[in-house]
Amino acid sequence: MSSEPSIFFSDTNERQGSFLRRTFVIGAITAVGGVALTGRLAQLQVVQAGEYATLATNNQFNFRLVPPPRGRILDRNGVVIAGNRPSFRVLVVRDETKDLDQTLDLLGRLLPDTVDRRRSIIRDVNAAPRFSPVPVKSDLTWEEFARVNLYANELPGVMADMNEARFYPFGGSFAHVIGYVAKPNDRDIKAIEDAGEKVPEILYNPGFRIGRQGVEKAFDRDLRGEAGGNRVEVDARGRVVAEDVGGSKPPVPGKDVVLTLDADVQNRALEVFGEESGGCVVMDVRNGDILCMVSAPSFDPNLFVGGVPSSIYRALADYERLPLLDKAIYGTFPPGSTFKMTTALALLDAGIDPKERVVCTGGYRFGARTFRCWKAGGHGAMDMHSAIKNSCDTYFYHLCNRAGIDRIARVAEDLGFGQAYEIGIAGQSSGTVPSTRWKRAYTEATSWDDDGTWYPGETLSVAIGQGALSVNALQLAVMTSRIAHGRKAVQPRLVKAVGGEARPQAPAFADLPFSDQHLDIVRAGMAAVANDVTGTAYRTSQLGLGDIQMAGKTGTAQSRDYKAGESRGPRNAQWSRRDHALFVAFAPHDAPRYAIALIVQHAPSGGSVDAAPKAREIMKTVLLKDPDMRARIERPLPPEAVAPVGVDEGDAGSGPGGEVVGPAAAAVAPPPPPAPRPAPAATSGPRPYLSEPPR
What contacts 212, CB < 8 A, 6 or more positions away? Predict the structure, then answer.
């Protein structure tokens, strides 16, 4: 028989006291904890309630930046030359994808061309801020857009939407002057930080673009606008569940920029260049407005908006005709015979009689060297008018040292050479105008093996636009505009207005330091170049627009040094070894309104054959767009202005230097030249044929 286990207490009072102590300690601890918990809850719910309510709201809502529509760029007539267009795109949000690699694999089946860019896509996605959508592909076709939306439920973190993309409707016509847009890079961010400025948060947005080169870069802050944002509600994992329309901020579009360029003239200029390389600038003589500034060959800036493939970029960069280089304001060339008007003004300033004759026998002996004229048989007796008309090198060889290199350099600077212009965009080359001071500085800077002395033989090369002399197309256009205007140092202008506010023009043009009589002599020579049957550009300079005629000057400039006895032909040999062809002109020659400068790099023939015809076609477009010129063209010609029967424009031919040689037209009377303008009573008085430029 078993018995129940029993517990025996030896001391009832001792046992009861121990139990009460433990109960008291545990109860005290529990009470303290309760008080602390109650106090903490009171602090959270009463004292810090507002603070934590704000944090909870911030965790519930996110503010996602929205890039603003970029401002447009317009020509002088309101034609859009850089705008925005709708674009379908597909985006990926890294934090909403379960597996980025798997997501990209699925996308690759829908959009096969994303496979080749997979590495760059992953790099962009990983570099983007959290929950920020990253464009994977833009410019989707409607079929691609529909396909992505059809499978959107099976692609977590993938969305398709429509945004605005930069668009250049005229392709390469404005590529160099306008530039293009591209994604900001590390260099852009560092440049802002180095300037001590705060980096705008929008620059980290993968869909944002900034200006590169030209007007897009120079006016980027105006064109950029102000970023907006969408206030969206997110869940605990950061996924968007709704949009708070009331808390969103619409973006502010960028400002429009209006240029002085004319889209029709710009397009025509690029068209006439064809496959040739070079630059062209057209200016309004009266106020300096640039109507055309084109560089050829060009490139399509639309390729750069979404990121140009490296293969295409390398093809553009490696092409010997350098389509990425702006040859209108950055590329410099020797001006050749287009510089002879500058030398002529320096000779007149030195007191040389324009009627003084120099006999050209085909060259000029100076020291131990013979400087050849472009016409091997020589031009015979030449005064200044004939020397400009026939582009006689010997005349300028013979007289240039009587003016001296420093006087020639001073006149060149007065006409606009050797300087950059404030036209709103950077990247201009100032070129080189040699002088005694320039040579000393150049010798010291380069440690050239020379004592820095300027030798008279060097002046001969500069006098005909060769030697160390280098200019760009914009400078040639400024020179031509100033000669055409006659009184004022015309300054070029490219930007008319920004954001609807007119850009202030330059201060009143300074006076030119040349007398009217001297300028008349030079202009008469230029008129003979284009309108005398024996002029170097007669056959290729006839506009066929009523009584409107150009005054111009051809030029054929060496691109390299020739060895003694080496021929400068054939012209269609290796491209990089050809000479450059140039032509400058203004029209109408009796009431100047427009000036043009055109350079053909490594031309097949020369100034009269390659450059003048192109300039003529561009000038015709300019004149036909001017209502005043059209009215003049359409009015009947007076009987005395009709050319006599028997004149054959085909009698002139191309000479070995690219200049035009004509037979002695003794039996054929040339068209009567325009009546000479009466000389004003004082050299500082108003010109009778040109109104003051509008200010």
Answer: 179, 180, 181, 182, 304
Phi and psi (nearest 5°) for 207? Answer: -95, 0
| C-alpha triplet 253, 258, 260: angle, nearest 5° | 165
Does residue 557 contact residue 313 with C-beta atoms inside 8 Å? no
What stretches of 128-209 adopt beta strand conformation (E)? 134-138, 158-167, 180-182
Q: Which of 112, 114, 110 is nearest to 146 (CA)?
A: 110
Angstrom distance (rounded) from CA 165 to CA 73: 14
Tell me the three state secondary structure of residue 380.
strand
Which tops the pLDDT comparison, 549 or 66? 549
The pLDDT tens digits for 496-519 are 999 988 887 767 889 999 999 999
CATH 3.90.1310.10 residue ranges for the chain: 65-259
Residue 303's closest CA among 188, 175, 140? Answer: 175
Closest to 91 measured CA to CA, from 55, 59, 53, 64: 64
Segment 440-491, tens digit of pLDDT:
998 888 877 677 889 999 999 999 999 999 999 999 999 999 999 999 999 9
Dihedral through CA 561, CA 564, CA 566, CA 571, nearest 10? 30
Q: Mean pLDDT of all residues in the chain? A: 82
Residue 292 has phi, psi (to 5 degrees) of: -150, 135
* Whole-number Å distance between alpha carbons of 213 and 180: 7
Q: Integer distance in angstroms from the first to the last C-alpha of the chain?
A: 132
- Residues β-bridged to residue 64: 230
Closest CA to 392 of 371, 412, 375: 375
Place of tokens 């001006």: 335
- Asked whether the CA dihedral 668, 673, 675, 679 is positive or negative, the reply is negative
Q: 238: how many CB neighbours lie within 10 A of its CB?
A: 13
pLDDT digits (tens, 9 = 90+) for 33-51: 777 787 777 766 766 665 5
Range(s) within the chain of domains with CATH label 3.40.710.10: 263-638+645-661
Strand partners for 470 = 432
pLDDT computed for residue 14 by the predictor: 59
The 10s digit of each residue's pLDDT in 201-249 is 888 877 788 999 999 999 999 999 888 876 666 655 445 556 665 667 8
Mean pLDDT of 524-528: 96
| The dihedral formed by the CA atoms of 82, 85, 90 and 92, expressed in degrees to the nearest 10 | 50
Q: How confident is the model at residue 667 (pLDDT cuts 50, 70, 90)?
A: very low
Beta-bridge mates of residue 432: 470
Which range scores top for mean pLDDT: 60-64, 217-221, 305-309?
217-221
C-beta separation of 564 from 460 below 8 A:
no
Percent of the chain with pLDDT over 70: 81
| Sign of the dihedral through C-alpha 396, 401, 405, 407 | negative
Among residues 614, 612, 610, 608, the alpha carbon closest in space to that of 654 is found at: 608
Sequence-distant (6+) residues with CB within 8 A of 273 are: 280, 294, 296, 297, 600, 614
- Predicted confidence at residue 34, as pLDDT, reads 79
- As a CATH number, domain 263-638+645-661 is 3.40.710.10
- Report the CATH architecture of 65-259: Alpha-Beta Complex (3.90)
Q: pLDDT class for 27, splitting at 50, 70, 90? A: confident
The residues, ordered by sequence, that sit 6+ positions from 666 with a Cβ below 8 Å of its Cβ are none
Task: List the structure tokens of 491.
Answer: 């300054």
Q: Of 124, 129, 137, nearest to 229 (Cα)?
A: 129
Residues 6+ apart with CB under 8 A from 370: 363, 364
Q: CA–CA separation, 632 vs 170, rounded Å?
A: 31
